[in-house]
Amino acid sequence: MTGTDLTIQKPLRLAPDRAFLLVTRPEYLPFWWGPRGITLGEHNLDFTRTGPWSSVMIEAEAGSHRVSGEVLSVSEGEAVELSWAWHDRQTGERGHESVVILSVLDDGSGSTILTMQQTGLPDSESARLHREGWTFSLDRLDELIAPAGPVP
After folding, report:
1. Most buried residue, 9, 45, 80, 138, by CB count within 10 Å?
2. Which residues are within 8 A (CB) of 41 and not within 5 positions of it... i.e. 6 or more apart?
């Protein structure tokens, strides 16, 4: 790991098998995907299978940001690995590609430690911005967990 690689761990009051569904299934991803101030626009978010994914994040002052990649591997109930690249706003071309791994692990008490690793970011400023975005996004997972949320 380098200074441009990220690791964020998030405890979840949910069994690992349920937590894995929360971070991979298309019915849950739109509810937590994206940092503070973002509205999710057009998207193809399904991390249950390998293949392409994409989303458009809309920011009130800055406009839309498209990000896309490929789900590279799925280890059912354990981890999903995907490529990640932002698109240039003017040309639409995909930029620098990094890799994200979302993994779940039992914390020993029946709850989960969710780990997000992102490797290959281009520079420290990109890593800082991604850390902010991922931290906020992962914090939104708490809203989906029962009793208040739809995930029992």
Report:
1. 80
2. 55, 56, 57, 58, 64
